[in-house]
Every structure is written in structure tokens, then in C-alpha cells.
TrEMBL record:
The chain crosses the membrane at residues 14-35, 56-74, 80-107. SUPFAM superfamilies: Sm-like ribonucleoproteins (SSF50182). It is found in: Membrane. InterPro entries: LSM_dom_sf, MscS_beta-dom_sf, MscS_channel_2nd. It comes from the Bacteria. This is Small-conductance mechanosensitive channel. The keyword Ribonucleoprotein does not apply. It comes from Aestuariispira insulae. The keyword Transmembrane applies.
Length: 296
């Protein structure tokens, strides 16, 4: 059935149904006038009772008009609904992505999952939220690996529909401090404890001016999330590689913007300690050989 035929059918139906609707409304109005006049002339009916009857009559007649209009206009409404449904389906298919973007925007607004200034990761994209619009969200990209907490200078515009299909990781607490881990692999005979002490001493020296702020920041995280984070004091952990070499790993709660510099100074101190140990080992071995020769 074409659009022209539908409109012609609607026109024919509307012509008859307008007259029927007017007739129904006039009939109801006449009934109401007659009932009101009759009750007003009744002296045996009290005022409260009269008002109650008139109110019930008015509501009943309004309901009758509503039901009558539904029956009168049902054929036209059915035809109009079918054409409207087809039109609505076409509109939805054409604007599917726009609807999804708007839905994703409402999801973010209602759940408060992200806000401007948060660090987020979604679908492999990671950065700081700098703008939220109805259709899209813009983030300043963060790097990966050693540059995980440094901006790349690139802006990424994400359609808000992505928030309906992928989980969001919110790293809002990483903006100022973060638990950072780095390690050094020594030789089989490395004094691991001395190496760890040297690296920890370097980190503590750099964190001396940030220690109190780090404690307050951890208290803030624990208060907001209800999760016990722990102490900001740097810690060392010892492991071995498959080749039997010792690995000293240091974990510290350090300022995000100073991660690279603090890590580099600690690693340099560790490498200096490894060099010192490697220089002492041959001297100790040579001294031991000399003592054995003298004893012989």
C-alpha cells in the first residue's frame, strides 16, 4: 500500500469520524446540562450530596467520551499506527549510531562512571578525559610502558556508544600517586640484600618530601573506595630467573609525574652497587689464593 492510498483512506475515515465525535460530545454535554438542571431543582437533595453526584456524573461522562472516541477513531488509529510504525523503524535504522551515542551519554551521566579529569582506559585506548559531549568523549592519550603516565600529545575522540559495549577502567587515583614497580637482575653471586638496601635508600631519599602527602592520599583512597591500600613505604622483593640469577624488585607509592626520575635514580644506584660488588669479588678471590699459597 502506497503513502497516497494511506492518506486517502485516512481522509475518508476522518470525514466520518469527526462528525461522530462531534455528535458524541454534543450528546454528552446535553446529558450533563439536563442532569445538572434536574439536581439544582431538587430541594430534597442536600448540597454536599448534590456536589458529589455532579462530580461522579462529570467523571463518568468524561470516561464515556474517552471510550467513545477510542471506538470511533480506532480504525484510523490502527491505519495510522501501521504507517507510523514503518516510519519509526526506518528512522531508528537510519539513526542507530546516534541513538547509541546518546544512550551512552545518559549512561555516563546517570552512573557517574567517568568525569572530566579522570584517567580511563577503554577498548585499548587510555588517557585523561578532557571533554564530555552528548555524542562523544575526548581524551588526551597517555603512553604505554615506561611512558604510561606521560601524555603523547594526541587527542582521541570516542563515540559515546563505546561505553555501552566495552568496560571502562577508571584510574582517577593514579593522577597524583601510583604504586610503581621496577627491578634489576643481578648475577648468581650478587648480594641481593645489599642491592635492595641501596635501591630502597635511593627511593626513600627522593620520597622524603612526599611521604606525608602520600599517606594522606592513601587515606583518601581508602575512604572513598572502602578498600585497604596499605602503607606508602617502599618494599623490596627477591626472585630468581630461569638461569638462576637473582632479581630484586622494588615497589613504591610515588608521585605520578616523578616516576621516571625516581626510578632512574634508584636503578642507577643499584647498578653502581652491582659494579662495586663485581670489583670486590676478584679482590677477595685473589686474597684467598694468596693465603693458600703462603700456607703451602
Amino acid at each position: 500500500m502506497s503513502i497516497t492510498e494511506i492518506l486517502k483512506m485516512l481522509g475518508d475515515l476522518i470525514g466520518n469520524q469527526v462528525a461522530a465525535s462531534l455528535l458524541l460530545i454534543i450528546l454528552v454535554a446535553v446529558i450533563r446540562m439536563i442532569a445538572s438542571s434536574y439536581l439544582n431543582h431538587r430541594t430534597d437533595v442536600e448540597g454536599d450530596q448534590r456536589r458529589r453526584i455532579l462530580s461522579n456524573l462529570r467523571n463518568g461522562l468524561a470516561l464515556a467520551v474517552l471510550i467513545g472516541l477510542i471506538f470511533i477513531w480506532a480504525p484510523a488509529l490502527r491505519t495510522f499506527a501501521l504507517s507510523l510504525t514503518a516510519f519509526a523503524v526506518a528512522i531508528i535504522l537510519a539513526t542507530k549510531e546516534l541513538i547509541l551515542c546518546i544512550s551512552g551519554s545518559f549512561l555516563n551521566a546517570s552512573s557517574r562512571a567517568i568525569r572530566v579529569g579522570d584517567w580511563i582506559e577503554i577498548n585499548g585506548k587510555r588517557g585523561e578525559v578532557v571533554d564530555q559531549a552528548l555524542m562523544s568523549t575526548t581524551i588526551q592519550e597517555l603512553g604505554t610502558g615506561p611512558q604510561a603516565y606521560q601524555f603523547t600529545g594526541r587527542a582521541i575522540v570516542l563515540p559515546n556508544s563505546i561505553f555501552l559495549a566495552a568496560p571502562v577502567t577508571n584510574e582517577q587515583f593514579y593522577r597524583r600517586f601510583v604504586f610503581h614497580n621496577f627491578y634489576i637482575v643481578g648475577a648468581e653471586n650478587t648480594d641481593a640484600q645489599a642491592l635492595a638496601d641501596t635501591m630502597l635508600q635511593s627511593v626513600r631519599r627522593d620520597m622524603e618530601n612526599h611521604q606525608e602527602l602520600a599517606r594522606r592520599y592513601i587515606a583518601l583512597i581508602e575512604k572513598r573506595t572502602g578498600v585497604t591500600v596499605g602503607e606508602p613505604e617502599p618494599k623490596a622483593r627477591f626472585t630468581t630467573t630461569n638461569e638462576g640469577r637473582v632479581s630484586v624488585s622494588v615497589t613504591a607509592f610515588i608521585p605520578t609525574r616523578e616516576i621516571s626520575s625516581i626510578e632512574q635514580r634508584a636503578i642507577k644506584a643499584g647498578l653502581d652497587e652491582l659494579q662495586r660488588q663485581s670489583m670486590e669479588k676478584p679482590e677477595s678471590a685473589q686474597s684467598h689464593i694468596s693465603q693458600m699459597g703462603a700456607g703451602g
